[in-house]
Design goal:
The protein has 294 residues and is α+β, with helices and mostly antiparallel strands. It is 26% helix and 27% strand. The C terminus is likely disordered.
């Protein structure tokens, strides 16, 4: 009977044939899209921070494509260690995904010492960081110019702007103490990596003291601060140049959020500042002046 229908209506036969072919083409197209796009085949991205890039590139079951976007020299680390990655650990990715990484440089390059004279401590710390150098120790001396850089030294040698230095070198700064009894507040650095901790403490006209790393820490550059002494209270003030002792541990992004959210100020360590003279107020170093880069 169907043959009679097709004989009477040959156009219907062609239409049905076109419909079947169209459905088949669409089905095949979706099958190829699924195969090539690997739909449903996503994997959790591992944490490569602290690992050697060469090693993770070889041990690479997902066939990820690693692209180095920056390298930073760290005298305490071997070259080629992954410092940062994008996407972040735990992200669901497909195979052959491109992962952008920042690694430690194998050797320091030469950089130029910027002009630091007459800068404030905060400005000098930022200038050194931008130049690829770091601030070492702050030495405060009698001077009418409070919190102003008087001279810079490297390993005890006086240095001047324009000199070439190895990237990552620590530059010690001699700073004016000013009149009166200037003081500052310990910044909140809980949950921060050492580089940011150092910058915050130095920018507050304090010095970085002894640093302790838990036994679980494999890569010091990515460890986070969970304790400091003197502790942060947001109120208690300390003389300029006071040394801050620090403790670090390994922590995931979730751990950092927990460490910060559960941090509580020890009320027994709060010391309310005494009334200051107008001269002290005019020259004091206040925490809210700093532009923290979290």
């Amino acid at each position: 009977m169907s043959e009679n229908i097709f004989r009477k209506h040959p156009l219907l036969k062609h239409l049905l044939l076109m419909l079947v072919v169209s459905v088949a083409i669409v089905a095949i197209a979706f099958l190829f899209i699924k195969l090539f796009a690997r739909q449903g085949q996503e994997y959790e991205l591992a944490d490569f921070r602290g690992e050697m890039l060469e090693q993770v590139s070889q041990d690479n079951p997902l066939k990820l494509n690693f692209v180095v976007i920056d390298s930073i020299y760290d005298a305490d680390s071997k070259g080629g260690v992954v410092l940062q990655q994008d996407p972040k650990p735990g992200t669901m990715v497909k195979t052959k995904r491109t992962v952008y990484v920042t690694v430690t440089a194998h050797a320091p390059s030469d950089v130029v010492l910027p002009e630091l004279s007459n800068m404030t401590v905060r400005s000098a710390v930022s200038a050194l960081d931008a130049a690829g150098l770091r601030c070492g120790t702050l030495k405060f001396v009698d001077s009418p110019y409070r919190n102003v850089i008087l001279e810079a030294t490297y390993k005890g040698r006086l240095i001047s702007a324009g000199e070439k230095m190895e990237q990552g070198s620590a530059v010690d700064l001699t700073v004016g103490l000013g009149e009166g009894n200037p003081s500052t507040i310990v910044p909140f650095v809980i949950g921060q990596v050492p580089a940011k901790v150092h910058r915050a403490i130095l920018s507050a006209s304090l010095n970085v003291g002894r640093e302790h790393y838990d036994n679980s820490v494999t890569n010091r550059s990515s460890a986070v601060c969970y304790r400091l002494e003197p502790d942060y209270t947001g109120v208690t003030r300390y003389p300029l140049g006071t040394y801050v002792e620090l403790w670090y541990c390994n922590a995931s992004d979730k751990d950092v959020e927990r460490i910060i959210s559960t941090f509580k100020v020890d009320s027994s360590k709060i010391v309310l500042p005494e009334a200051e003279t107008e001269e002290d107020v005019a020259g004091s170093t206040y925490v809210d002046e700093w532009d923290w880069d979290w």
